Amino acid sequence: MTGRRRVKFTTTWWGAAWIEALERRARLDPNRLPRGRIYARHGHVEDLVLSPGLITARVHGTRIRPYRVIVTVRQLDDPEWDRFLDAVVAKAVHAAALLDGELDPGIVEDATAVGVELLPVAGELRPRCSCPDWADPCKHAAAVCYLVAVELDRDPFDLLELRGRSRDMVMAELRRRRSPGTAEVAAPVVEAAAVAERGATAREAWQRRVGELPHPPPVRPGPGRLAVWPADPPADAPFTAAGLAAVAGDAIDRAWRMSCGDASSALSLDLDADLARRAATALGTPGWATLVERSGVDARELLRRASAWRHAGADGLRAMAEARWKPDVVTMAEARTRLVEAGIPAGRIRVDRNALVVDGVQLRLGHDGRWWRFEKRSNRWELGSAPGETPDELWDGG
Question: Rounded to two decimals, what is the model's pTM?
Fold first, then answer.
């Protein structure tokens, strides 16, 4: 799918089933998904490609260049495919429909009955984005996940491809299972389909040898693990093993993020910004309490900074520290109109200097021309998301 346009989804059972799995079973952060859905609807995603175990796309955000998103999907192993295909063959109506080019929704239950999940469950979707937002998923990756539903509306066989086998491979294997005498003929078809790259014609695929077919580079799911130190440092060393491990682990993570996209080394940050960056990494880990103690910063305030960093890095810290100001009346009136058009009753919207206030949410216009969502927690306004180009992009109904 190429081009930027507003998107309406879904129109089929398959698209709806994907969204149901995405929101209820895949265990992605439920606070991030609604903003991704808004991005998906507003046409920020382009060049979406689905291939075995992989979803890639470019997503337009606040920078000139679009962000690069990669979502890895767990592929079914051979025993799982065997159980699934045996289950389909056992149901004549499902096998016949599949061989006729139709994917009956009933095969999802057939697969589940033999311990195979076609739709994603917890841990099977791993999104990565080149944006500075550390949330998992960020709104760009969440938008890409949502738009898979549109692709499944068009061709539900894409779900089988995501799980590791193309339409041709599955149909060839089904024919082989239904007609044991044709196994010798079907096997080369399956093998050729397995190695032919997306976009090659059948003639080209058959004319090449298997070893000549290019393979996509392996996708790294994350940074490598830190090796265990063989011994503690000397007693008089100016560092501890735990401290050295923390520094080395941080360097590994930064290097990996740089290799994946637009993330910087963060070596030029001042002490306050670097503390926020480290706090964002330490959130939810045993190292959080130690960092709070050694930083001398109140835990609530450090959490506030860490959250801002996770949403937008150094830009998030600047937005949080920016003094309130008063834009021109026309700018704020136009922004208010956008919220009304997004479905918010006009009586709920109040203009307060550079902010549109809706209940416990402020959508603030920054001096940089971007909009920032602030949410009131414990009587303090905290950054609630990465920035948007317009205020309605940041509104998710609450």
Answer: 0.50
CA–chain centroid gap for 202, Å, is: 33
Evaluate whether residue 257 is within a structural domain. Answer: no
Same-domain status, 337 and 358: yes
Question: Do residues 349 and 330 make contact, with C-beta atoms less than 8 angstroms apart?
Answer: no
Outline where 297-385 has alpha helix (H): 299-321, 329-341
Element (H, E) at 259: helix 241-260
Q: Do 284 and 390 fall into the same domain?
A: no
Give yes or no for a contact between 270 and 264, defined as CB atoms under 8 angstroms apart: no
Render the burial of 232-257: b for 16+ CB within 10 Å, e for the rest: eeeeeeeeeeeeeebeeebeebbeeb
Select from 174, 196, 212 the last residue of a domain: 212
Going by the DSSP 8-state scheme, the letter that residue 391 receives in this structure is G
For residues 36-55, average pLDDT: 87
Q: How many domains does the chain have?
A: 3
| Residue 309 shares a structural domain with residue 347 | no
Q: Write down the pLDDT at residue 347.
A: 92
User: What CA–CA distance (Å, rounded) separates 362 from 355?
Assistant: 6
Residue 338: domain span: 329-394
The reply to whether 7 falls in a domain is: no
Residue 72: in which H helix or E strand, if any? strand 67-73
Does pLDDT of 270 surpass 70? yes
Are 179 and 55 members of one domain?
Answer: yes
Contacts of 120 (CB under 8 A, 6+ apart): 21, 22, 25, 26, 73, 74
Calpha distance 382→120 (Å, rounded): 33
Interhelix angle 167-178/92-99, rounded to 10 degrees, is 130
Question: Based on the domain organization, do 86 and 164 belong to the same domain?
Answer: yes
Examine the domain organization and report whether 70 and 177 are in the same domain: yes
Short-list 111, 212, 148, CA closest to 20: 148
Q: Is 40 domain-assigned?
A: yes
Q: Write down the pLDDT at residue 6.
A: 45
Angle of the 183-195 helix axis to the 167-178 helix axis, nearest 10: 170
**Radius of gyration of the chain from its Cα atoms, rounded to whole angstroms:** 25
- Are the C-beta atoms of 233 and 240 separated by less than 8 Å? yes
One domain, residues 293 and 385: no
